[in-house]
Write a structure and sequence with these properties.
Helices cover about 45% and strands about 10% of the residues. The protein has 15 helices and 10 strands.
């Protein structure tokens, strides 16, 4: 991608698309340090910018479920980048679902006031790609009166707060890069549908897409902000991709054809696809080709982390005889999830056996919320220590991690637990890199 000095890299990418150049950008939405390290290592020797996003539930002015405010998340990403020699200037920080989502049960005035505080912190912390999401009903909303114009009114309120924060930054640094914005409401709950059936998924209609665009146009014009479209780069859509506890709905170009044609007729706008997790590289590339130029992924990355840790746990049971010497990562994670079920109990249904199965293997991946629990972190550290301090028979590694076995044999990967896990995660990143690059 040809970068333009002083311009937001996402805007440069989309300008290049308008001029006929192929391209897109993955949005890696994750707060897990190992995952972020895997993303950056996989892109270490490329020239492309890397977009890493935090959600409003993960990171906000009150700490979110990670305990981090926007500046804290930024500093964590930069710390990881510095440790591996990744250029900070190639990192684009983004905020996902920024709006009243964490406070949606409160009165609209209160929820929106908190949302403004949050987006202000994100912009002041240097985030350059902002998804404004005001699609949810708030505590004082009447369902019969809720529609696209209320969503747009609230979105524009947050946009104006972001612009004020940007002007503060610009006073300190006249060369400060302007953030770009994504709007739209065709999104599922963060982390997938949680439903067993995803085969009846409805693609965003051209009428629904235009309703969103026109509502924002009307509200922006009313506030004298028509020039905002210079900075609004994409609309969130449902292009027909989703995942739930038991299934994946893969991209179907025929189902999305009318939406793609509608968006392409608008000239500059592209689509952002939420929940592109678990799509094949071929499907991802088709999406980018069709104008879904921003492809967001999150749970598929932490699911790969869990897969790698489980594979090592199975291996550990085979090579360490005494159970008391094992890390027992799988059992520790299960205990943590049972001790604090709030992050999974609304999503996993059925018998106790079925819920146990989902806690371990559901692709909605609610286990990711527990990787920061001290007992789980300690179990992972012990698992890595056991792996590194034991002479691992390579043919046993092949049983559980055959791809990593081959890379070790070819001298491309060290026999080191952390590096093997990072390599496992990076295979997901590979698919997204394939999708967006010429």
């Amino acid at each position: 991608m040809n970068m333009v000095e002083g311009q937001n890299p996402v805007k440069t990418l989309l300008d290049n698309r308008k001029n006929g150049e192929y391209g897109g950008i993955p949005s890696y939405c994750c707060a897990n340090e190992l995952v972020i390290e895997a993303i950056l290592k996989k892109n270490l020797y490329t020239q492309a910018p890397v977009l890493i996003e935090a959600t409003s539930n993960q990171v906000n002015q009150l700490g979110g479920y990670t305990g981090m405010r926007p500046a804290d998340f930024r500093d964590m990403v930069y710390r990881i980048a510095d440790a591996i020699g990744f250029d900070r200037d190639r990192i684009i920080l983004g905020g996902d679902h920024l709006g009243p989502l964490p406070w949606q049960g409160l009165h609209a005035d209160v929820a929106m006031s908190r949302a403004k505080e949050m987006v202000r912190e994100y912009v002041l912390a240097g985030y350059k790609k902002i998804h404004l999401d005001t699609s949810m009903h708030l505590g004082s909303d009447k369902f019969e009166n809720f529609g696209a114009h209320i969503v747009a009114e609230r979105g524009v309120e947050l946009y104006m707060t972001c612009e004020e924060a940007y002007q503060e930054l610009k006073q300190k640094n006249p060369n400060e890069i302007h953030p770009v914005f994504v709007v739209g409401s065709e999104v599922p709950i963060p982390g997938g549908t949680g439903e067993e059936k995803v085969d009846e998924l409805v693609v965003t209609t051209p009428e629904g897409f235009l309703e969103t665009v026109n509502a924002y146009k009307d509200v922006l014009e009313k506030h004298g902000l028509s020039e905002a479209w210079e900075h609004i780069c994409a609309i969130v859509v449902q292009p027909g991709v989703e995942f739930g506890n038991y299934g994946i709905h893969c991209y179907n170009r025929e189902e999305a054809a009318s939406l793609v044609k509608c968006v392409s007729g608008l000239g500059g706008l592209v689509m952002e696809g939420h929940s592109t997790d678990y799509q094949t590289p071929t499907h991802l590339r088709e999406m980018v080709t069709d104008g879904i130029a921003i492809i967001k992924v999150g749970p598929a990355l932490t699911y790969a982390l869990r897969e790698a840790l489980f594979a090592m746990s199975y291996l550990e049971k085979e090579i360490i005889e005494n159970e008391c010497d094992r890390a027992n990562f799988m059992e520790t994670l299960e205990a943590a999830m049972l001790a604090n079920p709030k992050n999974w109990e609304k999503f996993y249904k059925g018998s106790e056996w079925e819920k146990r199965f989902q806690r371990r293997f559901s692709i909605s991946d609610r286990s990711r919320y527990y990787f920061a629990v001290p007992e789980v972190k300690n179990a992972m550290a012990k698992l890595f220590k056991n792996f590194n301090s034991t002479s691992i028979p390579m043919w046993v590694l092949h049983q559980y991690m055959p791809v990593q076995y081959e890379r070790i044999g070819e001298g491309k990967l060290a026999v080191d637990a952390k590096e093997i896990v990072i390599d496992f995660i990076a295979d997901v990143v590979d698919g997204y890199n394939y999708a967006v690059r010429k």
